[in-house]
Write a structure and sequence with these properties.
7 helices, Spore Coat Polysaccharide Biosynthesis Protein SpsA, Chain A, alpha/beta, globular, 2 domains, 3-stranded mixed sheet, 264 residues
Length: 264
């Protein structure tokens, strides 16, 4: 194994029609002993690009949500000591690679979250703060599996320590208004389905109040206003997703499903 590779680190990337973004993503994670691409039936050059860059590709075209797709990836991770789940619209920075490398060389046990560095509509939103979500880096003995169609969560072994990586992870969330609207509709419907399964109720008023509260929080408190038009658009799209999530929960309740197609 080349000296610059981290023994036992597997990076997992979920894809569907990510030919444009995937090269930068895969090039950023060359420190991994193995990179696995779990593809959901791409019709573009995603699979060819992944294989050309040395990734191990496994196809699961029957899309059933992010949690199921991540769970499927685990069957190909035998022998891994650490797992990092990277999305195709993300790239590992040298600082993040160095931090991950230090943890692995110390044989640290646990799970680690990471904060996004948002890149939207052609601008890096460096002034915005972002709350960490699901852990992305795991020591293999701590990760039991995944649940959830969207905004999924990891199932961890009891007493697993959870910490936060200091370096940020660039997230190229929205490249265009068209792509953002498509992604917004997918996430709104998947989020509505998730809440319907829990027995939650929706409605226009609840959606409106939740959307306004979200917009004010991320635009004013998290620094969206610092980035002019791109910052406003980014916060507005997230607020609209929140609104339509509760609208769909009320008016499309009988048609909601967690099998909304992934992709663009």
């Amino acid at each position: 194994m080349p000296e610059d590779k981290l023994d036992g680190l597997f990076v997992v990337v979920l894809t569907r029609n990510e030919a444009r973004r995937l090269p930068a993503c895969l090039d950023s994670c060359r420190l991994a002993e193995r990179t696995l691409v779990i593809d959901a039936g791409s019709s573009d050059d995603t699979v060819a690009i992944a294989r050309a860059r040395g990734a191990q590709v496994h196809s699961h075209p029957d899309w059933r949500g992010f949690g199921v797709q991540r769970q499927r990836a685990l069957q190909y991770c035998q022998g891994a000591r650490y797992l990092f789940f990277l999305d195709a619209d993300e790239t590992l920075t040298p600082a993040l690679c160095a931090e991950i490398g230090a943890l692995i060389r110390q044989s640290r046990r646990g799970a680690w979250t990471v904060v996004w560095e948002q890149v939207a509509f052609g601008r890096q939103l460096t002034g915005m703060t972002s709350a960490p979500g699901m852990p992305r880096l795991f020591s293999a003995d701590c990760l039991l599996g995944f649940e959830g169609a969207v905004h999924e969560h990891a199932l961890l072994a009891p007493d697993t320590p959870v910490a936060r990586l200091k370096a940020r992870l660039p997230h190229h969330s929205y490249d265009s208004v068209r792509a953002s609207l498509h992604k917004m509709s997918q996430y709104a419907l998947l989020g509505a389905a998730k809440r319907a399964a829990r027995g939650q109720r929706g409605g226009v008023l609840r959606g409106l109040t939740s959307a306004v509260a979200l917009f004010l929080r991320i635009y004013l408190l998290r620094g969206g206003f610092l980035h002019s038009g791109p910052g406003f658009l980014y916060c507005h799209v997230l607020a609209q997703e929140c609104f339509f999530r509760y609208a769909a929960l009320a008016y499309d309740r009988d048609e909601l499903t967690d099998s909304v197609e992934r992709g663009r």
